[in-house]
Prior knowledge:
- There is one protein chain.
- This protein is an all-beta fold.
- The chain contains no helices and ten strands.
- The protein has strands at about 1-5, 5-15, 15-25, 35-40, 45-55, 60-65, 70-75, 75-85, 95-100, 105.
- The strands form three sheets. It has a four-stranded antiparallel β-sheet with strand order 1-2-3-4, with no helix packed on it.
- It is elongated.
Amino acid sequence: ASLDNAGGFRRTTTGGVGQIEMWVGDNAPNCVGNTNWMPITDPDFVDITTFVIDDSNSFTGTVIEEGGATLTQRVRRINFQLEGRLLLDNAITRRVEDTIRVRNDFLN
């Protein structure tokens, strides 16, 4: 699961069929249980077989302001993979892979 204080996504399985869920709660996501998780894929039609989020290409840099103050800047690069198959015909599969650069870099 990919989690932060603002939200999260996870893959769960029920009866051997995977689905993607989104956190809709008000605080940090709870990975245990189903409270405040909403399904965003339909397990009656598609089996989500792969869901991977990797932020290992993110990095932290240093920004020096004009007055000499130093800030750190976290640049987030998220690689994700999502794959699923149609339950009515397992031969029909789709895979999506992409890298996203999150535009709201974290400064502190």
